[in-house]
Amino acid sequence: MGKGESTKTAILDEATELASLVGLGGLTIGTLAAATKLSKSGLYAHFASKEALQVQVLQHARDRFTDVVMRPTVAAPRGEPRVREFFDRWISWQSTAFGGGCIFVDAASEFDDQEGQVRDELVRAERDKLESLTLIIGTAVSEGHFREDVDPEQFAYELEGIVLAHHHARRLMRDGRAEERARRAFDRLVDGCRPIARSA
Amino acid sequence: MGKGESTKTAILDEATELASLVGLGGLTIGTLAAATKLSKSGLYAHFASKEALQVQVLQHARDRFTDVVMRPTVAAPRGEPRVREFFDRWISWQSTAFGGGCIFVDAASEFDDQEGQVRDELVRAERDKLESLTLIIGTAVSEGHFREDVDPEQFAYELEGIVLAHHHARRLMRDGRAEERARRAFDRLVDGCRPIARSA
DNA sequence: GCCATAAAAGCACGACCGTTCGGCCGCCGC
DNA sequence: GCGGCGGCCGAACGGTCGTGCTTTTATGGC
Fold it and tell me: What is the band of B4 on the pLDDT scale with cuts at 50, 70, 90?
């Protein structure tokens, strides 16, 4: 890895951290340069524009998400355990991956009405995650861990809701029981999907 | 209502709309002045600082929330119907109250790490809403519509999750079935709370 | 150890930021 | 009908924004 490449990685690391505190839009070249001990122009030389920087920050975070959430998840046993693994890692990702809030959650509400490459990248990442999640849940159905009438997309929707509620309670309200509540909600969600030899 | 007061209301209306598009932090005096056809200084004269403006925008939106969600809700019959009314109005508030996203959701992730009056006001509003919601759910328990072992705070947490998932799916992903999914999730949540003469 | 090249710095730009201040205009009570 | 005053404006402040240049400094292959 050349010098330029390594500084760029360092920049993106710092940018991710900063963006989690002030938002992807609140991120400025000046403060980022100060944080990385570079001059504004020295830093800027690594990117074509601010928008390009923002997009690359998202991609950088996405790579990390793949490493610490997705990859270990698919290593877990198929079916419900894998769903559980995903949930566990997702929750802990939100708590530990950033100094501030999860940049995907933050950026989602910041850019949901602002057309552009940032929004596009955000949608791409979300669609990707949703697709993987749906697949994992579908497997839990085909393995017989979940009932046949469980709709994976609906399950994914509700799971995302729990994770968002967790983020909200934890970051804004500083609710110490946020994680415990999330786990309870998850258990309730899963329980409702188990085949209890009840109906057809 | 004096002249100054009416212009101030007009400013706050426009500011709410604008903030729902670009975020409360993305709101600038210049663009807001242009939108209201006032000069920067003429507009600024109504507020002590930008932070004060942001806080008052939140309070303004909170008043509207009280009018179109809270007040009609408490007019509904006690118990489950009232819970349902709250949910319905909350969902439709998110869809119709703003041109962009719900400013409370947007601002929550934008300011969750930025100490100050804006964050304080945000927490105050959320705590208020959560308290009312918990009360409403508690009533559904004491009315016998929900089981005795239903935890109102946990219910409120999960309900908030559904609403957040709805906002996310609708605004970022532009999922046309977002509302339908939210309703299904809500029904599942309520169903799980009904007394089915099952256990102790 | 030299030299081509990559990386970072220095400097400057136009635009816009939040904020202040002095002054103009039209509405009110007298 | 005149004086005072609230409401709004124009101009300007020091700063910071994103973005270009041109120059200096560091790096790595020979």
Answer: confident
